[in-house]
Amino acid sequence: MSGAISLTVNDDDLAKVKFDDHGLVPAIIQEQEGGEVLMMAWMNEATLRRTFAEGRTVFWSRSRQEEWAKGDTSGDRQWVREAYYDCDGDTLLFVVEQEGKGACHTGEHSCFHRSFLTPMASGAS
Question: Where are the domains of the chain?
Fold first, then answer.
């Protein structure tokens, strides 16, 4: 099932989101199928409201100082299926249906494809 679905958000819940001094809040994007974390991006109040209105992720680019809807240029859209805010209200989590090849601008499926750790060989101590 691809595409936008009807999303209703409660204004009381929106009021609990704590934006930083720049008017931004981090948004973690997780894939519905399999639960993989795909990316993290920033939202302001306008892009958060637009995300709910359009049913797909919309972010704020700190480098370009503009809104961007995921997939407008790549076709790799993210359709929101669930949305949460954490206990402090200062981080968002969106569970999405990822359309296209993936979330990362490098062409990888997830932006978190690089590991700091190297698996140890069996028997190593």
Answer: 17-98
| Dihedrals phi, psi of 50, to nearest 5 degrees | -65, -35
| Pair of tokens at residue 37 | 């974390």
Name the CATH topology of 17-98.
Answer: Ubiquitin-like (UB roll) (3.10.20)
CA dist 56 → 4, 73, 78, 99, 106 (Å): 7, 14, 5, 11, 21
d(C-alpha 28, C-alpha 39), whole Å: 6
pLDDT averaged over consecutive 10-residue blocks of the chain (125 residues)? 83 96 98 97 97 96 95 93 97 97 91 89 63
Tell me the pairing of strands 92-98 and 78-85: antiparallel
CA–CA separation, 88 and 73 (whole Å): 34
Please give the model's pTM, rounded to 2 decimal places: 0.89
Q: Are 90 and 25 in contact (CB under 8 A)?
A: yes
C-alpha span between 72 and 79 (Å, rounded): 13
Residue carrying the six token digits 């954490």: 86
